[in-house]
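Tokens for Probable membrane transporter protein. Go.
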Amino acid sequence: MPPFSELLPFVVALAAAGALAGLLAGMFGIGGGAVLVPIFFHVFGILGVPEEVRMQLSLGTSLAIIVPTSIRSFMAHRKRGAVDTALLKGWIIAVPLGTLAAAYVAARASSAELRAIFAIIALALAFRMIFNRASWRLGTDLPGRPARFAVGTGIGILSGLMGIGGGVLNNTFMTLYGRPIHQAVATSSGVGVLISLPGLAGYVWGGLGVYGLPPFSTGYINWLAVALLIPITLSLAPLGAQLAHAMSKRQLEIGFGIFLILVSLQFFATIIV
């Protein structure tokens, strides 16, 4: 392992990523995973973690950090009365089911495949947010129970494969059916809770006994990174929620879209290189 003097810049980078992740968790209901996963991928690489397990470790560790962040962000949004609790209750089974399926797939997929999934979904959603039009609607209200259950399962699968809290996908789903972006953001924080808890368990199970994981890891969860970043993300999530309610719908969409493009391009670059 490199000496501490060489690791210090990366510890600082992790701390900065945690601060940004906490703000984004509150602002966009995304749990911060879209920030943490690429940062973890590179930091774990510097620490000598083999590429074969590096992406899985990044995804699992991100979901572990999202657990308390999403809970606190959800509580902050619920106090404002903006959460669609009926939708969350209907997804209590669907979303965790999809997340556990994702952990199973991730344990068997290659690092490059997981990075490609992350980048493609992020880029598609970014363009949808940036070029969004009021006429882009699939309906005036959310679909009925069977279709809604399928959507929840799909959100769990894709979010589990990206190591995110589900806000990226839930925001798109709800706004396509005419729900206000602020309600979508608030509800997404609750979706993050439904994803991160089973996701943590799934990535622990999927990585048990795997060779090449760094110290302080249980399966695909590195508890040293979790311990470092959780206090930072927790302290800043409520501030992010305040910023979300102070911004306009269009400002949220454009800011979120630009952020996703940058993350997507960064991962495409790692695949090509």
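The mean pLDDT is 84.
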